[in-house]
Amino acid sequence: MNRPHLLITSAGRRAKLVEYFVQEFQEGTVSVADCNPLAPALYMAPNHHIVPKIDQPGYIDHLLELCQREQVTALLSLIDPELELLATATERFAAIGVTVIVSPPSSCLLCFDKYAMFEHCTLQGIPHAKTYHALTSFREAVALKEVGFPVFVKPRNGSASIAVRRVETLEEVERLFEQSPGLIVQEFLDGPELGVDVYVDLLSHEVTSIFIKEKLTMRAGETDKSRSVLRTDVFELVEHVLAESGLVGPLDFDIFDVGGTLYLSEINPRFGGGYPHAYACGVNFPAQVWRNLCGLVNQPHIGHYQENLYMMKHDTLTLVSAAQFEQTKH
Amino acid sequence: MNRPHLLITSAGRRAKLVEYFVQEFQEGTVSVADCNPLAPALYMAPNHHIVPKIDQPGYIDHLLELCQREQVTALLSLIDPELELLATATERFAAIGVTVIVSPPSSCLLCFDKYAMFEHCTLQGIPHAKTYHALTSFREAVALKEVGFPVFVKPRNGSASIAVRRVETLEEVERLFEQSPGLIVQEFLDGPELGVDVYVDLLSHEVTSIFIKEKLTMRAGETDKSRSVLRTDVFELVEHVLAESGLVGPLDFDIFDVGGTLYLSEINPRFGGGYPHAYACGVNFPAQVWRNLCGLVNQPHIGHYQENLYMMKHDTLTLVSAAQFEQTKH
Predict the structure, then answer these.
(1) In Å, how far is B220's CA from the nearest CA of chain A?
(2) Which residues belong to any copy of the ATP-grasp domain (chains A, B) (predicted)?
(3) Contact at 8 Å (CB) between A319 and B311?
């Protein structure tokens, strides 16, 4: 059995997650890449590499070359815009012996297209916030009182909470649609938001872990405080949504509980920003990644964690000298 | 010599700073208070207390009672709105043997009133962003081309970056002034921003430490990445500004470098959110607080740190069980 060498790309500020991987890959190697030499996650692993921005032509060629030079055997990206890029290049990586930990391109696309996700959920009978991609259909729905205000106006293909607006009037929705193309309107779901971390085994394609947290406070678009919860209905919803979805690896679900009915809000087909809460509660995805990369199947352990553990994020810091910094850049 | 017992109030998310105090008060005690049992800084010290919100009537009485019960000898708040409250109550605390680490009320007031600070700087010959508290004088200045766009519109008494708007036209400034009272207009300073951590000895009233960092990236209103710099002109400006200001203890300056001219932007008469960068570079305020509380004067050590050390913040987390949480609340 070869020891895996995982390269984590676009690692950014996710230092804690890199630390967990380093911890769980004691029989193996973890390297980190980012385009910004001031990405703190770079410095959590002994091997770090500055790479071009993901939108540069030749980015994938650069990664392929880096993987070959450093004998990398697996690749994991932490940001949305890189996933499709990697998903469509898995064969090129496979040809040099690198496993890309990513869902297939069609599954990634579904997750990133909020309107397609709404249509998919409607077809599958999964409750989802009512979503409109055309002003005409939204106006009609308002006239028919199918949807009320406030609503959210967001980019159809947006990531995280970027450019999400809470809007109170039809006129404001119309103004926003005039200003920018590619927007959707989504109904406001009034209830607690659950963040759910899910692992789908890369080999068996079975759901092996589900961790549920209630989001208590947000900060800079991320969960800042949360509470672990155990709910069978959420476990069932996740399994239902994932059946035949093609999604694999670490996933992050947003779900709203509106008076006891669960509404799927979105799926991010990657590690969620709130995953450290799950790890701290013993729900260990990096160890499952390691086992998968060693050719071992993980057994399902759904709901094996303690409920009512409160997680609070706070800051820590890393110091790098100009000399180290220059060394990293070259 | 009695060992000091410091109570840090409104500690919030500033876990790292509390950790430093615990580290430096090995001969002494550190306790922490906050109104929110989910404030992570609470859990960095063995003794933590949930207190009323600072705007509750009886807040000061509650603190006095707590100090007496726990034999607290000194008090330090980490947030702006509490400073004036404590500054006007220092005698009540002194009467029970508690030193409040805070500047006098008039000095605090000056720091929190952006227009007063502008007038003060103008009188002292200290460059400061041009500031207008009346629409008429701003319109006049625009007509005379004394000030151009963009400008910043902010609350005259605002804290941090709350409700600060970058505005491009006179019409927009007029609209904002119509909507809310208590606004000022400030000229836009185009240049690198420096964050400066300063310690003024509580006993000698001398400036003992100055740490300068260039702010490189902001996040959620705080410095996220910065670089340590050594600049004699900044040291001189800080000493000039502080002479006869009455300000003592830990202070946080914001300064803009506009083509080599230093403009004072604001002074926060408390620990700055970026202070951990200074501590990591060896500029130790908690140790100076400890010495002062032991009756010892600190000697000036201006500029004793390494330049070109890059600081990157990232997240860590603290987990608290529902049981611990309940225990803290009572």
Answers:
(1) 5
(2) 118-294
(3) yes
Classify domain B190-312 by CATH number. 3.30.470.20
Q: Which fold has domain A130-187?
A: Dna Ligase; domain 1 (3.30.1490)
Q: Which of B34, B90, B98, B66 is nearest to B329 (CA)?
A: B34
In the stretch 265-284 of chain B, residues with CB closer than 8 A to chain A read 276-277, 280-281
Any chain A CB within 8 A of the CB of B32?
A: no
**How far does B208 lie from chain A, in Å, by closest CA?**
24
Spell out, as residue ranges, where chain A has pLDDT lower than 70. Answer: 1, 159-162, 330
All residues of chain A having their beta carbon less than 8 Å from the beta carbon of residue B280 are 317, 319
ipTM of the prediction: 0.91
pLDDT on residue A222: 87
What is each CA distance from B314 to A3, A40, A76, in whole angstroms? 29, 7, 20
Cβ–Cβ below 8 Å for B315 and A320: no
Second-level CATH architecture of B5-102: 3-Layer(aba) Sandwich (3.40)
Write the pLDDT tens digit of every residue in B130-175.
999 999 999 999 999 999 999 999 999 876 566 789 999 999 999 9
Which residues in chain A touch residue B216, judged by CB atoms under 8 angstroms apart? 38
**Residue at token pair 């020891």:** A3
Q: How confident is the prediction for chain B on average, in pLDDT?
A: 95
